[in-house]
Amino acid sequence: MKRDSDERGCGFLDNQTLLDYAAGNLEARRADLVREHSRTCSSCEALMVEQAAMWVELDCWVPEPVSDGFNRALWQRITDSETAPWYRRLLESMRSGGWRPAVSLAAGVAFVAVGFVFDHSVERTASPVASAVASGWGMTAVEADQVESSLEDIQLLRLIE
Amino acid sequence: MFELIDGRMIAFAGVGSAGIGGEADLDASLMLRVRDGDEECFRLLLNKHRIPVVNFLYRMVQDRAVAEELGQEVFLRIYRSRGSYEVSAKFTTWMFRIATHVALNNLRDNRPERAGRRVDEDAEGRARELPDRVPSTEQRMIERARLQQVRDAIGRLPEKQRAAVLMHKYEEMEYSQIAGVLECSESAVKSMLFRAYETLRARLSHMAMAGGAR
Ligand SMILES: [Zn+2]
Q: Rounded CA gap, A95 and A45, in Å?
């Protein structure tokens, strides 16, 4: 159980042992070794006490229950999204592709843009980025913002990848 | 392999190499049924995972209303992805990956207004109370201060470290699964967690000492 980074303790406890011990994830035989060692080593004992105390402190944070209307609101959003125009659903499916965008950024944007050009005319535009896109392709402010938001999402997905 | 859920026989899906040791994943089987048009299976998944997902999001963004909205976004994305769903990882790994993405996205979008903001003292979340005692006003104040410091200590962790700690501590996820969610190696997750817990130990050590007198 040689330590790999922490300067605390005598070097007997490694980080993972310390963490797994506090979390109760250490197998019984190794936990016994740790306990046995801490009885004779005050610096490791101090570290273990501190770790255990931190672990218990974190337990004090209990979230409020999820509100009753959660499922209802979700089904409403699902219904709304299912009845949305095809290009919005495409945008959303690009956003919901998780970490695995099925289409490339360029192809996706071009495809969506074609949909807008066929279906919509310019009303007004919002943000500078959105307006630049919108004025070229003829879409509403809300739709332009959706495009911008989706592009940001996809960029973030790529970062996470 | 089958299991009876709400009176329905559900076959387990085997998880491929991206999952944990090829173990059977009942949730993935349910999701495959959702893909095939079975909405009832989506309801089962929703009811099973709604609380851990919303709690994770809440602890990430520290705002209950926002967390619920983001939680709906997560399940909406899952539902919308049903048509192309394939079992390539454990279902919960996939779900928490979406939840983490949604949370990071929200934190990024709201960074300017969150910067320098201390977590609101009257914000939601409650300190755990022991069921066999009625706390005095003073005890309530102490518990509230403890809760506030824990929230603050976690809230000041870098976002990825925070996500890793929340999954490890509160969702009791294994290192390998957290690695799957954050798409990094298991050793990267471990060193992320060691750093985060070391920070938390330092930030909360004075509370632990005060707690010794409780
Ligand atoms: Zn020692």
A: 49
